[in-house]
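Supplementary Methods S3. Complex input for the 2'-monophosphoadenosine-5'-diphosphate-bound model.
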Amino acid sequence: MSDRYCVFGNPVGHSRSPAIHAAFAAQCRQDLMYEAILAPRDGFVDAVRRFVAGGGRGASVTVPFKEEACLVAKRLTDRAKIAGAVNTLVFEGSAVLGDNTDGYGLLRDLTHNLSCQVTGKRVLLLGAGGAARGVIAPLLDTQPAALVVANRTAARAHDLAQRVSRADSLGACGYPQLAGQSFDLVINATSASLGGKLPPLPEGVFAAGSLAYDMMYGQGRTPFLVFAGRQGAARLVDGLGMLVEQAAEAFRIWRGMRPDTTPVMAMLRAAEPAPSATQ
Ligand code: ATR
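Predicted complex, serialized as structure tokens:
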């Protein structure tokens, strides 16, 4: 019987993860089955238990279960602890390991696929929810000249910065305080794009030659990327690369081999997915 993996989410019908992992498995000649499981909002833990009892070897976790998944795991990696969220579960007998590959996925997409070095750059991270929490520590690890977290609810940005505060280069504020500042890299980690909305950014935050990155992906440009283009950002990038890279890191954790992500990204681009969150 094939080894079983899945993604838990609600909703999960939009998920590209089954297609991504099927492509990785074919490429790496791994005999595995990967399905999407819609868990009830109040039934995530039971759904995981059932999956493990049925021989499940590992799982991806997406909205809205990434935080609850921390409680399911008996052991957390450091990056999952800092993020306070788990997107990858490994079932080893009765032991459950929780990891978070989102930050890795973002950094790998930026530095490897897009040749965008973060070190020494001025970086603006929009949002202070789960998506921002997953990437803030890996971003800081790359030693940007400055990292500013901006959020609609400024207090949440301050809380997030305090959670990881270990660098003078880290700042936090609301959107109005961004007026007069500009950045080389602006990352949208809010869920605004999901609702077709734009975070209330002041004009002028995109420095000449800057890269605008929306963690969301989908058909056409998100309102954030349209705004960034009008404001003079030189490069506009959606989150498809991050999605595939975080999945590749999960695949490496589960199967011990790293798939080539380039053909898988090309396959997904050709399929033109509908707007969606990561995973
Ligand atoms: P997730 O886990 O996906 O990050 P979340 O914890 O609900 O979800 O966080 C959503 C983030 O998107 C928050 O930073 C939220 O801002 P608030 O903390 O002020 O709610 C942000 N967000 C959602 N819609 C937004 C919008 N229209 N404009 C700006 N920020 C928005």
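The chain has a mean pLDDT of 94. The radius of gyration is 18 Å.
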